[in-house]
Amino acid sequence: xxxxxxxxxxxxxxxxSYKEPPLIPPYxxxxxxxxxxxxxxxxxxxxLNKQKGKSIMIHDTDDDEDFEDKEFMxxxxxxxxxxxxxxxxxxxxxxxxxxxxxxxTEGAAGxxxxxxxxxxxxxxxRRLAKIGISIEFPEGHYARVTARSGAAIHxxxxxxxxxxxADYRGEIQLLVINHSNNAISLExxxxxxxxxxxxxxxxxxxxxxxxxxxxxxxxxxxxxxTKKEMVQWKDGEEFVSGKNQNMISEVLKEFVRxxxxxxxx
Length: 265
Ligand SMILES: O=c1ccn([C@H]2C[C@H](O)[C@@H](COP(=O)(O)OP(=O)(O)OP(=O)(O)O)O2)c(=O)[nH]1
Description:
Radius of gyration: 33 Å
Bound molecules: deoxyuridine-5'-triphosphate
EC number: 3.6.1.23
Oligomer: single chain
Structural class: alpha+beta
Pfam family, one: dUTPase
Family: Belongs to the dUTPase family.
Protein name: Deoxyuridine 5'-triphosphate nucleotidohydrolase
Low-confidence stretches: 7-17, 59-66
Strand content: 15-25%
């Protein structure tokens, strides 16, 4: 049948019926899947409480008879073998008086540490303060102890050193540096420092003769500053700004590299 352009009614009807979206049938397993997911979440929570830092293997091999997670795992999630590791910061109390580190808010990066002794740091001096705990953290991490900003500004102190190795099992101590002209008295339970965990990689060292060229080159200590007073001085005389110096040294280095390469070839 040919549509008549003058017959608007028929034409409209034709367009509407042509564009009508197809009916999408309701997905029959929707509720089943939601229930499976809820069961699985509960199961993971229970495993988490039970395992305390150990790994749980989640995989789909039928020959693994004693794999207890299999029955709880929603079928469409069991695709490949994978390991789920639950990360814990393990804290061992070394005294009865010490306090476990605490994060004060959900988003806090640091765990506040509590001193486990009364200690006085003389003016312009430093002392090691005990916190009565040793720790073990997840693989691939190390920790830093650093000052809490409130203590740093009000007491005019800082925390020095601060790197805690992953294999260290001794008591963590705080190197408290007193920058003020008065002695600082700290009491057991005071919190002046925090512990922050950081991911780390420790690749093998490869000794090389050349490093890749960069725009920065060897520039440092304000080399990118543009203010006039930041221009470098040598023997009382202005010479070249850090940026120009970098460019010149990079060009020279590249030239030497090319000469060496052409000599070798
Ligand atoms: O502020 C700090 C710094 C370090 N340590 C502990 C943990 C760390 O793993 C260990 C060794 O620290 P680091 O490696 O910085 O010191 P080192 O001088 O190189 O000593 P070592 O030869 O024992 O590694 O001392 C602390 O308790 N507090």
